[in-house]
Design brief:
The complex is a heterodimer of chains A (180) and B (144). Chain A has 180 residues and is α/β, with parallel strands linked by helices. Chain A has 4 helices and 8 strands; from the N terminus they run H-H-H-H-E-E-E-E-E-E-E-E. In chain A, helix 1 packs across helix 4. Classes of the chains: A alpha/beta (180), B alpha/beta (144).
Chain lengths: 180, 144
Amino acid sequence: MGFLFSSMLGIALLVWTSVAQSNETLYRTAGGYGCLVCHGKYANGGGFVGGNIRGATVDRINKALATQPTMLLLAPVLDDQQRAELSDYLQYLADFNLVEWNLVDGETTQIKRVVGNKDIQLVIKNETFTEVSIDLAPLGKQELMIVQPLDTEAVVFSIKNRPITLESGTNTLKLQKMNN
Amino acid sequence: MRNFMKIVTVLLLTLSSSAFAKPIIELYKSPTCSCCKKWAAIMEKEGYTVNVHLQNEWNSVKESFGLRPQLQSCHSAVIDGYLVEGHVPPQDVARLLKERPLGIKGIAAPGMPQYSPGMAPDEEYKDFNVIAFSDKSMSVYHKY
């Protein structure tokens, strides 16, 4: 019985991951250039004209496609199913506590305070012309994250009560969890 | 003598106009993007001829110039042997064609900066960088 339950759970997780990846692919390719061009690689805005659209509902997407001058031509190529898939992806991203960390030349220390118990998606934008590697051990992950020059990458993790410090060259990020 | 001067004048005008004629822009864009049209209109106003290629993807063009994914925008323009990616201001294109720097394959305004040509309501461009790129390196070409 236990084996059956864990198998079903595993299959459900695989299907869910596959759907999430498919929706992410649509976000990155819609219209031939992808929503990321205007809204950033992780829908966090990324400093571009479209801004942060995390959590956008189908209604909001429909309204934007019907009224925003830069999006009008995109409307005919996105059917109802695709609009729903895009909304699912944006809702999925909204379930994370977004923390943005921009790596720049020179010495910086950024302190970010996180409220709530949601998992964190740390979106790291490398604004320098040097590839950086970040040791993710403080996040409980035994891996190095590589961020190419001018590129953006993200990592998801949960934060306990103790502060976390991440280092990348001359840039430091301090994360603190607030109780409310 | 008068006819000779006329011929010389016509020849000079012809030669000078061809010498100063701006190169043709081959613009690759998706049929679903409208801001690219505004950039094309700005370049036409600057005296360029713009040939628009409406395609769903033009990855082979970008790959042939070694454009990295993080530099991509909504459209790509091939101008006189260089790739100009995205909403690059016309003055940077003019400088590129005048100086013709060796060792770079093009210039890019990654993503869609809010205050760039075709996006900004006026010509006060700000808050973005134009990046010069080659296969191996990138650098700031113009900071707005």
